[in-house]
Amino acid sequence: MAAITINLTSKITQDNDTEIFTRHARGTMTEKDGIIRIAYAEEQEIPVKMLLKEDELLIRRGVDQNNYSFMRFIPGEKGKCRYVVEGRQMDMVSVTNLLEYTAKEDGSHQLRVEYDLFNGLYLISNYAVTLIFT
Q1: Which InterPro entries does UniProt cross-reference here (predicted)?
Q2: Could you tell me the end-to-end alpha-carbon distance of the chain, in angstroms, rounded to an integer?
Q3: Where do the DSSP E strands lie in the chain?
């Protein structure tokens, strides 16, 4: 298990409005049998766990069974997603437009995910997320 520093940039577009967020966190990364696991705390209090396979990314973010989100990204496919807030569940679907992982020569790693998030047939938002970890 290696200690890493994560630099996350998230671009969210909803209708004609776009917001960009940047966050930094310390975390850990393990790699075994082609599977990468990343763990960190968002804003130093919300645990985030990622599991990256060759063409699939799973993300679980949350503090307990009553407050969490689960996202699944597979390039070119729909993935089932779930948001649970105070025990109330909302199922959604992500359509992954890009999932790209690159290990750089300087030892850093970059993970890019671009996806559309739907509630039924309704497009909620478009997301472009880049994580750089060193």
Answers
A1: Calycin, DUF1934
A2: 13
A3: 2-14, 17-32, 35-42, 46-53, 56-64, 67-73, 78-85, 88-103, 109-119, 122-133
Instruction: Write down the pLDDT at residue 1.
Output: 86
What is the Cβ-side half-sphere exposure of residue 92, based on CA atoms within 13 angstroms?
A: 22
- Asked if residue 50 lies in contact with residue 109, where contact means CB atoms within 8 angstroms, the answer is no
Handedness of CA 14, 112, 117, 40 (dihedral sign): negative
Give dist(CA 24, CA 65) in Å, integer.
25
In contact, 21 and 10? CB cutoff 8 Å: yes
Q: CA-CA distance, 57 to 54, in Å (whole number)?
A: 8
C-alpha 134/C-alpha 121 separation (Å) is 38
The model's pTM is 0.91
**Residue 93 CB neighbour total at 10 angstroms:** 17
Q: Distance between CA 56 and CA 38 in Å, rounded?
A: 14
Region at 43 (left for phi over 0; alpha for psi -120 to 50; beta for the rest): left
Query: In this structure, are residues 42 and 27 in contact, taking their beta carbons and an 8 Å threshold?
Result: no
